Amino acid sequence: MKLKHIHIKRKQIVPLAAAFILAACTSAAPLPRLAQAWPQQDEVRWFKLVQTAEDGRILQTSLLAVQPDGSDGLRFVQTDALGAPLARQTVSRKGWANDGFVAPNRRAQQVFAAVVPLIDPQAAVYPQPHVEKQGAADIYFQNGKEMWRIVRQNDAAVMMFPDRSVWQLTPLDNGQTEP
Length: 179
Fold this sequence. Notes:
Residues 1-28 form the signal peptide. The protein is of the alpha+beta class and 179 residues long. The protein is built from two helices and ten strands, in the order H-E-E-E-E-E-H-E-E-E-E-E.
């Protein structure tokens, strides 16, 4: 069996590369969705969000605001200490969307998804997550794959991800919201 050589003209390279890029984008994991309706509340919930290294060093401290967005969504705004946005995203039954002109931030999206069940245990961003208890940790799985672990500590919660990143979430609204 002889194989024929395929000749690609330079004019065909750009459309071919674009097709490969689009194909790679469409093969990504399905977008997370809210599994249940978010309780209708007008207040914004404020949190201190701290990312730490494995040795306990603080890598980043930020503020996180979470508020209802429309009838079935949530809006997340993460800012640095000076108020500059680090991530702004919304999630609804249609999936995730960037909010404003802040660059996409997949890490923040993962953290925001882990925050949802801390605010409301009946809500979930991923449909039908499986939760296992292991010691003090609640381990969240989707399709057999670990998404994150949560350990509650007094008024805070520590979220640990498979990539070994660790985030601590502490409510800032005088105890009205417990993680």
